[in-house]
């Protein structure tokens, strides 16, 4: 499906296969399955489930009596989001409310409740606009509108108890159905047990086989054992494990080389001394096999999971070098053990930005043990590493709140006192149970608020708990039904398996317990050989000793110079002359000879460098050190003494600028150095020794003069315009600017800048260092009437030098501003019945231009003026005063509007207009009008008849009245002006309802006259009077109506009971028939004859057979072989 879009809400977790096929002959192929998991995105907005109007919009109307108290439940907004997870979490908020102090909305449940009681000044209709948002990163929302009408208690009597009655009835029905369901499930279990007992009793006898006992396989239970054979391919040996607790589904892990036993146990790999005790899985298998539990570890028997492949394996092949070579292999099973490498993750509380922070509100009047919230966390590890514990790291008041260690539940330890703070901060640490535990931190801010302000929040838990209980009840019903169906299917499956089960044939096996294990190691050594060389010392080759024999035992030693000497290399030679005689023993004498080499002027002075180079800044002070030249002479005395002087080419002008020290060779500044005059100098220096025949050497010193930024740029302004119109186009030239700098290089490069807050810029021209000052923004005289532009010219030297030049540019006015009104539209509240000709309001428009461009005149707009109002309004064209030429009546006209036009005197002239919305305010100029009772002649009189046996509170009639005024002026109150017997009848003040205050007595008159006064709520109240004649008659006529509601309710209850009885009987009959059918099927099953077996100590197994059962020769199917 190329280009298809996946929808999480449509099809979840699609998978597909990819086939790879080669081009060979024949072609081979393989395939792989790709599982695709679709992740949810917040692409579904919440959908309002209620309220919903008849046309499908999210609107509803609710009626509540005016006498309800604070906390009264009005209605509940229900919504649904098709997304999942966090994207489907919904929150409710009030976008608009007619009176925000009267109604509250629970944030997470959508419950609307009253925050206070109604007062006389509260309006009768209230509009609430509720926004429902989801919890996505980019939240989506939906809006619902609820209209709440506050009516009199009597009219809303039925509606006020509807929710309570329905809720009570639903709870009773749910409880009743739960009882019926529980009874049905109990009966089902009881009947199933009875059926299984009957089936077991009717089972034909099983003839057990007889076995011979092998000493290597002791059967401690003393009963026949059904054995399971597992063959290990390791040479010619077979190893078999036997035991009644080993299921038929046991298998060998592929490639395990017979060292791993797999049983269908869903635990992980187990080991340790506690796992070898009798009663554990390993202990029981060892007992059945007759194996010493202490040798299990030595024999490398392991229990691994047979379903969850949390291991991988590989083979190691060992091959010798013989001919032919032999090899064997071993399989290595690698089990991955869990380590504590995942820290706990906080699921709640979670803030909007994703951090583990939350805010909770509770009323201050809660008791100890009140549940505040619950911290939820998750650890991706398993086992002990995933066990989480919760602890309080920090609490503002540790005596006020507690944290349950393993559940994360936060509760109050005591009640709040007056001294307790309003905000409490709890820092909770969640740790796992690893050896090196990891942790996460959550922060909960708890605000203790007043009960009235937090009323909606104080009932949130109760409402949520009620909703959760309803959900729990629903899930209980579903669970009971599911368990019943599952149990029924299990019974049917067991019966089918029992009926179709084939006979079991037991086999016997031989056992070998030999296991070999070898290991070895080797060491690789490294050898290092060291060699040592020979040393020789040279002899003195400059002198030789010659002995001249003069006869008569007279010998003269002569020291002969063999090579010329160099004083600069060796200045002194130390020789030892030793004389030996010819006696015995030999006697000797030693003479020390010191030879001093004298100097001759054979070395000329030598400079360190033939060319010296130095950089010198211009304008340096006289005497500034420039450089020191150095020449050395290897001779000594006067032959090695050196004097310095300027060479012949450097005498003259250079000798005026520089001075040379004859002894030290230092060159210093003697005269002014100016870069602009000469940029470099070459000085020739001569060094001469003081020998008898002096020797000399020469070198050159190159002095490069470095420019110093000692000249400021010079700015010249030409062609300056003094005035520029504010509507000048972009790029208009204001002035020409020229800049010069006497320095060179960066010191002579100049940058010109302007302040950043001016609408001008400098543009370079074709000539170097010349600029044009032009406009680069639109001018507005009304904002800035003139500009003082400061031009800055700065060179690039170090330090940089700058020059400044200021010019003034004035902006001339253009008629580019319309007259502007300070507000649009105007709202005028005008009392009705005002005096004609009075000034009702004044409008003013301001024009930011100058002179005639700013002169404003006013007139009424002709295009938008109500034609009915035109003759009754007038405006002063100069000051904008508006006059009413007539008085207005609220009952005739409640609102109207007109336009005022303001126009300036510029060329061309500009104008603007403003709309004036006029609201006529009501005055109490209309008296109440009696609607009922009204007699045939039109007077406010009426006659009512009531039975004499009515009780106190009986409704007689209702006086209805109407006031043409609105608001407070139309609020009506009723009072008794006169009554024949004031103790018998009462009048409700705001509804006009007449009720009996007590029952009639024999002495009460039959006719009673009531005079009712109806007053409005104006400052000067107006009133009307109605007369009601009440006749007390016998009660026979009203008898039938008094019992109507009771009869209807009794009939409905009888119908529900009848249907429940029918349902209970049907379910009972259905289960009874099912059990009877199962019993009949079991009784009609043919008998199963078990085979008999003989036991052989050694079982022969054919090569290649992995599972074999040895049967007797009497078995017709196996014929004694497998």
Automatic annotation (TrEMBL):
Membrane topology: Single-pass type I membrane protein
GO molecular function term, any single one: calcium ion binding
One GO cellular component term: plasma membrane
PANTHER family from the UniProt entry: CADHERIN-87A, PROTOCADHERIN 2 ALPHA A 1 PRECURSOR
Pfam families recorded: Cadherin, Cadherin_2, Cadherin_C_2
Cadherin domain residues: 16-48, 63-162, 298-346, 361-460, 516-607, 608-715, 716-821, 822-930, 945-1044
Keywords per UniProt: Calcium, Cell adhesion, Cell membrane, Glycoprotein, Membrane, Repeat, Signal, Transmembrane, Transmembrane helix
Gene source species: Aldrovandia affinis
The name this protein goes by in its record: Cadherin domain-containing protein
Keyword Manganese: no
Region (Disordered): 1087-1122
Segments of skewed composition (Polar residues): 1087-1102, 1110-1122
Membrane-traversing stretches: 176-199, 474-497, 1058-1081
Location in the cell: Cell membrane
Main localization of the protein described in the UniProt heading: membrane
Highest taxon in the source lineage: Eukaryota
Presence of keyword Transmembrane: yes
One GO BP annotation of this record: homophilic cell adhesion via plasma membrane adhesion molecules
């Amino acid at each position: 499906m190329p280009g298809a879009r996946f929808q999480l809400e449509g099809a979840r977790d699609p998978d597909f296969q990819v086939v790879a096929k080669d081009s060979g002959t024949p072609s081979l192929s393989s395939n792989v399955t790709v599982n695709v998991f679709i992740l949810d995105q917040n692409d579904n907005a919440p959908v309002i489930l209620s309220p919903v109007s008849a046309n499908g919009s999210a609107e509803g109307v609710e009626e509540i009596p005016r006498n309800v108290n604070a906390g009264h439940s009005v209605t509940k907004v229900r919504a649904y989001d098709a997304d999942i997870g966090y994207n489907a979490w919904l929150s409710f908020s009030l976008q608009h409310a007619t009176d925000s102090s009267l109604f509250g909305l629970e944030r997470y449940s959508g419950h609307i409740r009253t925050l206070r009681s109604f007062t006389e000044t509260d309006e009768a209709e209230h509009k609430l606009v509720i926004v429902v948002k989801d919890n996505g990163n980019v939240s989506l929302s939906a809006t619902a509108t609820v209209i709440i009408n506050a009516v009199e208690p009597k009219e809303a009597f039925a509606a006020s108890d509807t929710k309570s009655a329905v809720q009570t009835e639903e709870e009773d029905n749910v409880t009743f159905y739960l009882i019926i369901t529980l009874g049905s499930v109990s009966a089902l279990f009881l009947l199933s047990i009875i059926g299984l007992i009957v089936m077991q009793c009717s089972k034909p006898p099983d003839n057990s086989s007889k076995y011979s006992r092998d000493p290597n396989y002791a059967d401690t239970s003393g009963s026949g054992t059904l054995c399971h054979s597992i063959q290990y391919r390791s040479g010619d040996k077979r190893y078999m494990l036997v035991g009644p607790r080993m299921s038929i589904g046991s298998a060998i892990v592929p490639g395990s080389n017979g060292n791993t036993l797999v049983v269908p146990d869903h635990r992980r790999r187990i080991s340790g001394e506690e796992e070898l005790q009798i009663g554990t899985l390993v202990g029981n298998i060892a007992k059945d096999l007759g194996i010493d539990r202490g040798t299990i570890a030595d024999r490398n028997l392991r229990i691994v999971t047979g379903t969850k492949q949390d291991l991988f394996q590989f083979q190691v092949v060992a091959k010798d070098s013989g001919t032919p070579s032999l090899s064997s292999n071993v399989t290595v099973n690698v089990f991955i053990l869990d380590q504590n490498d995942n820290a706990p993750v906080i699921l709640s509380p979670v803030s909007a930005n994703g951090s583990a922070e939350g805010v909770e509100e509770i009323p201050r009047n809660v008791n100890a043990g009140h549940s505040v919230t619950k911290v939820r966390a998750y650890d991706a590890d398993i086992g002990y590493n995933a066990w989480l514990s919760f602890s309080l790291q920090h609490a503002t008041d540790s005596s006020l709140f507690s944290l349950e260690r393993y559940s994360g539940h936060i509760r109050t330890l005591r009640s709040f006192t007056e001294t307790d703070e309003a905000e409490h901060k709890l820092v909770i640490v969640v740790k796992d149970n690893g050896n090196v535990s990891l942790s996460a931190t959550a922060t909960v801010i708890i605000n203790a608020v007043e009960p009235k302000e937090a009323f909606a929040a104080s009932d949130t838990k109760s409402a949520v708990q009620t909703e959760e209980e309803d959900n729990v009840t629903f899930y209980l019903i579903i669970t009971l039904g599911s368990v019943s169906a599952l149990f029924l299917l299990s019974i049917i499956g067991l019966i089918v398996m029992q009926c179709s089960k084939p006979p079991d044939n037991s086999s016997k096996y031989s056992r070998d317990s030999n296991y070999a294990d070898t290991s070895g190691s080797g060491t690789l050594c490294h050898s290092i050989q060291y060699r040592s060389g020979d040393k020789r010392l040279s002899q003195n080759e400059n002198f030789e000793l010659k002995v001249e024999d003069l006869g008569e035992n007279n010998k003269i030693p002569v020291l002969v110079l063999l090579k010329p000497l160099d004083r600069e290399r060796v200045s002194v030679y130390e020789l030892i002359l030793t004389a030996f005689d010819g006696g015995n023993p030999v006697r000797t004498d030693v003479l020390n000879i010191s030879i001093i080499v004298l100097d001759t002027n054979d070395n000329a002075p030598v400079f360190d460098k033939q060319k010296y180079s130095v950089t010198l800044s211009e304008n340096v002070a006289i005497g500034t050190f420039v450089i020191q030249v150095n020449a050395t002479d290897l001779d000594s005395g006067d032959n090695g003494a050196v004097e310095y002087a300027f060479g012949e080419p450097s005498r003259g002008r250079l000798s005026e600028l520089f001075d040379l020290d004859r002894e030290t060779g230092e060159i210093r500044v003697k005269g002014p150095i100016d870069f602009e005059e000469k940029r470099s100098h070459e000085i020739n220096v001569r060094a001469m020794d003081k020998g008898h025949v002096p020797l000399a050497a020469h070198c050159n010193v190159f002095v490069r003069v470095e420019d110093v930024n000692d000249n400021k740029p010079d700015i010249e302004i030409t062609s300056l315009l003094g005035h520029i119109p504010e509507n000048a186009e972009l790029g208009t030239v204001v002035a020409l600017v020229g800049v010069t700098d006497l320095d060179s290089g960066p010191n002579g490069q100049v940058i010109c800048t302007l302040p950043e807050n001016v609408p001008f810029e400098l543009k370079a021209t074709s000539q170097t260092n010349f600029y044009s000052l032009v406009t680069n923004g639109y001018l507005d005289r009304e904002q800035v009437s003139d500009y003082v532009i400061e031009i800055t010219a700065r060179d690039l030297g170090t330090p940089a030098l700058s020059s400044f030049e200021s010019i003034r540019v004035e902006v001339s006015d253009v008629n580019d501003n319309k007259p502007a009104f300070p507000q649009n539209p105007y709202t005028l509240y005008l009392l009705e019945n005002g005096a004609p000709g009075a000034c009702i309001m004044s409008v003013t428009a301001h024009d930011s231009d100058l002179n005639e461009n700013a002169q404003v005149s006013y007139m009424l707009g002709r295009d938008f003026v109500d034609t009915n109002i035109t003759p009754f309004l007038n405006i002063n064209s100069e000051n904008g005063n508006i006059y009413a030429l007539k008085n207005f009546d609220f009952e005739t006209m409640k609102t109207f509007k007109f336009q005022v036009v303001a126009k300036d005197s510029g060329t061309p002239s500009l104008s603007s207009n403003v709309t004036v919305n006029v609201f006529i305010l009501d005055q109490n100029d209309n008296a109440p009008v009696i609607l009922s009772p009204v007699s045939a002649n039109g007077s406010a009189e009426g006659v009512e008849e009531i039975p004499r046996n009515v009780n106190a509170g009986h409704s007689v009639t209702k006086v209805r009245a109407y006031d043409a005024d609105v608001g407070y002026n139309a609020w009506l109150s009723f009072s008794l002006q006169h009554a024949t017997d004031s103790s018998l009848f009462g009048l409700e003040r705001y509804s006009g309802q007449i009720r009996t205050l007590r029952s009639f007595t024999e002495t009460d008159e039959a006719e009673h006259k009531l005079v009712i006064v109806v007053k409005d709520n104006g400052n000067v109240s107006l009133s009307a009077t109605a007369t009601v004649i009440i006749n007390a008659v016998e009660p026979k006529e009203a008898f039938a109506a008094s019992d109507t509601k009771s009869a209807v309710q009794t009939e409905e209850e009888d119908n529900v009971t009848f249907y429940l009885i029918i349902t209970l009987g049907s379910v009972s009959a259905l289960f009874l028939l099912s059990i009877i059918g199962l019993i009949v099927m079991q009784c009609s099953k043919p008998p199963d004859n078990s085979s008999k077996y003989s036991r052989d100590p050694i079982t022969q197994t054919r090569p290649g057979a992995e599972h074999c059962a040895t049967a007797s020769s009497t078995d017709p199917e196996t014929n004694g072989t497998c």
